[in-house]
Amino acid sequence: MPSILLWVLFAFFCGSLPFSVWLPKLFGRRDAREFGDRNPGATNAFRAGGPLVGLLALVLDVSKAAAPVGWAYFQEGFTGWPMALIATAPVLGHAFSPFLRFQGGKALAVAFGAWIGLTLWKLSIPALLLVLVWRKVVDIDGWAVMLALASLLVIILLWLPEPLFLAVLAGQVLILGWKHRDDLRRRPHLRPRLTGRGR
């Protein structure tokens, strides 16, 4: 139990590191939380610091979940509910970062990183493609994320019906659903070009 707790805390700490806030301040003295939707995430790091800073923030946001999760899963051999807690911890850390007074980002990149840590490409690539596809289909990002997670559930059930993956997905649905709650209060619509109204 102590080692599990330490790993969960370590993964949470890694996830809580707000690179998307620190990097634009370091390289351009600009706060990502003053741009766009004021979310301390990689998208606003692009806006605040430019392409190179934004790309670096994105890579680090993905890596701060992929590294501890992959280490715990492949090297330390954690499985079952301990691994589910470890894989969820960096997502939770990013979403509620103590470095930002528990006002963290929306955690999408970190959730993607957790799937890399657990499955390498097997579920991370489908997850990425599903988010991109649903963002082309519906006009509200929060709904695109939730629909992508629902689609990922189908893939897991049909292809990799592992209880660990289902538990991790459930945790991501709760955390990302909460962080996108403002979006989810709005009714989604199909993109105009999909309905024919954009012609």
Overview of the structural elements:
- The structure is a single chain.
- The chain has 199 residues and is mainly α.
- It has one domain (2-195).
- The protein has helices spanning 2-16, 19-28, 42-49, 51-75, 80-95, 108-119, 124-137, 141-159, 163-179, 181-184, 192-195.
The Rg value, from CA coordinates, equals 17 Å
Which series of helices and strands comes N to C? HHHHHHHHHHH
Average pLDDT rating: 94
Spans with pLDDT under 50 lasting ≥5 residues? none
Number of DSSP strand runs = 0
Number of domains: 1
DSSP strand content: under 5%
Q: Can you count the helices?
A: 11
What about the largest sheet?
none
- The shape is globular
Helix content: over 70%
Gap from first CA to last CA: 60 Å
Structural class of the helix and strand makeup?
Answer: mainly alpha
Write the layout of secondary structure elements.
Elements: H1 2-16, H2 19-28, H3 42-49, H4 51-75, H5 80-95, H6 108-119, H7 124-137, H8 141-159, H9 163-179, H10 181-184, H11 192-195
In short:
The chain is mostly helical and 199 residues long.
Please tag this protein with its features.
199 residues; mainly alpha; 11 helices; 72% helix; 0% strand; globular
